[in-house]
């Protein structure tokens, strides 16, 4: 259930955040919600995965037989041809 929240922020920061949200095809509300969620989500003490990276996990489907090293090597070969 969504609820309204009133915040008092510096006007310049609000404008920058709105521009960033627009360029990211998101809303300011979703950006703030995502940030607050990342702050409040508990992680294992030894976890080296940041909340942002964790939130992106599962976004793309990769083939089961993908060889990451080979794929990266092929990418570099194509890039520097």
Keywords:
81 residues; elongated; mainly alpha
Number of strands: 0
pLDDT below 50 for ≥5 consecutive residues: which ranges?
A: none
Q: What class would the helix/strand composition place it in? A: mainly alpha
| H-E order | HHHH
Basic shape: elongated
Distance between the termini: 52 Å
Domains (count): 1
Number of helices: 4
What topology does this entry show?
Layout: H1 11-23, H2 28-40, H3 51-56, H4 68-79
Describe the structure.
This protein has helices at 11-23, 28-40, 51-56, 68-79. With 81 residues, the protein is mainly α. The protein has one domain. The longest helix is centred in the first third of the chain and has 13 residues, at 11-23.
In short:
This protein is mainly alpha-helical and 81 residues long.
